[in-house]
């Protein structure tokens, strides 16, 4: 081998090493960029568990956030989300060694706050989304497609027993009402805000499980029930929503109309998760997850059947949580 060939042979590996190094730098540059991005939300790898219970209405949103957090943010943290219902969840939350969060489809009650004070539990309210209470019927019901707010009240108070009591052209068939049971904040919201604290009709079929409610309504042509918009939105093939007339014409519940100052405002409500501040200060993964929720909740609200809250509200809560570090 002459000198030129020898030099060429030596040069190739050197170039390959240099290119590999450049490629590595590029890759690292991208990786560093991602790492920088990740480090904005996760300054360290965390371990441990986060316990959440409460509202079945809020469950789809919180379960989606938990899934995303465990896969893409903190694989070492286990986030367990259950759905006993708002009231039943508060019983688990307001207890010694209770849950870290309680999801709620209503505000915390005075007696629940009093119990928290008695136990020395500092509770922080986090508004996470907006839900539209949705009235649903069997898909073959082609008469009660639009109802006034007063007619909805009359149906669930038992003032109308047959459909023909509302409109003589409608079937002379008994109305069968359905809804979530007393464990759920949706029941309490309906009772307190829609029925103005008047008792529901005695014949109503109240259920703990929302999927059971969907099944029952989808099998009963004379059924009418209520729950959060998300359960209707994910079961449109088996039930239908009733448009509600709040005084200015019928309004279809949708992510475009559900808003505290929107067309569906009459049946719109905020939903929450409540944080045990002491647990957040003792367990870094709990505080990190709380901040993750408020930084990302609007990203996943729509796909789980909720309207987003104003971004400035979410970021204001992030700032308040950051202070707990």
From TrEMBL:
One GO cellular component term: plasma membrane
Per the record, membrane topology reads: Lipid-anchor
Subcellular localization, per the record?
Answer: Cell membrane
What SUPFAM superfamilies does the annotation carry?
Periplasmic binding protein-like II (SSF53850)
According to the UniProt record, where is the region Disordered? 27-49
Sorted alphabetically, the keyword list is: Cell membrane, Lipoprotein, Membrane, Palmitate, Phosphate transport, Signal, Transport
Which PROSITE patterns does the record associate with it? PROKAR_LIPOPROTEIN
Show the GO MF annotations: phosphate ion binding
Q: How does it assemble?
A: The complex is composed of two ATP-binding proteins (PstB), two transmembrane proteins (PstC and PstA) and a solute-binding protein (PstS).
| Family, as annotated | Belongs to the PstS family.
Its biological purpose is as follows: Part of the ABC transporter complex PstSACB involved in phosphate import.
Please state what the protein is called: Phosphate-binding protein
């Amino acid at each position: 081998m002459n000198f030129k060939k020898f030099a060429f042979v030596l040069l190739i590996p050197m170039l390959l090493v240099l290119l590999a190094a450049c490629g590595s730098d590029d890759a690292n540059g991208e990786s560093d960029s991602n790492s920088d991005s990740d480090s904005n939300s996760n300054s360290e790898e965390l371990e441990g568990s986060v316990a959440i219970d409460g509202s079945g209405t809020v469950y789809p949103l919180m379960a989606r956030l938990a899934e995303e957090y465990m896969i893409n943010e903190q694989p070492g943290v286990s986030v367990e989300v259950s759905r006993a219902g708002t009231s039943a969840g508060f019983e688990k939350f307001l207890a010694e060694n209770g849950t870290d969060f309680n999801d709620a489809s209503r505000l915390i009650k005075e007696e629940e706050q009093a119990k928290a004070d008695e136990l020395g539990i500092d509770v922080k309210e986090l508004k996470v989304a907006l839900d539209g209470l949705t009235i649903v019927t069997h898909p073959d019901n082609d008469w009660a497609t639009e109802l006034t707010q007063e007619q909805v009240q009359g149906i669930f108070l038992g003032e109308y027993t047959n459909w023909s009591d509302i409109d003589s052209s409608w079937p002379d068939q008994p109305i069968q009402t359905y809804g979530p049971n007393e464990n759920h904040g949706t029941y309490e919201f309906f009772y307190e805000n829609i029925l103005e604290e008047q008792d529901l009709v005695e014949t109503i079929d109240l259920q703990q499980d929302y999927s059971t409610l969907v099944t029952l309504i989808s099998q009963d042509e004379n059924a009418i029930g209520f729950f959060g918009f998300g359960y209707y939105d994910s079961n449109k093939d088996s039930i239908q929503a009733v448009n509600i007339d709040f005084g200015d014409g019928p309004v279809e519940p949708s992510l475009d109309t559900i808003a505290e100052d929107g067309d569906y405002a009459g049946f719109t409500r905020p939903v929450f998760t409540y944080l045990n501040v002491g647990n957040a200060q003792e367990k870094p993964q709990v505080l990190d997850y709380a901040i993750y929720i408020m930084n990302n909740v609007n990203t996943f609200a729509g796909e789980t059947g909720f309207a987003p809250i104003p971004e400035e509200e979410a970021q204001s809560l992030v700032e308040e949580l950051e202070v707990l570090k």
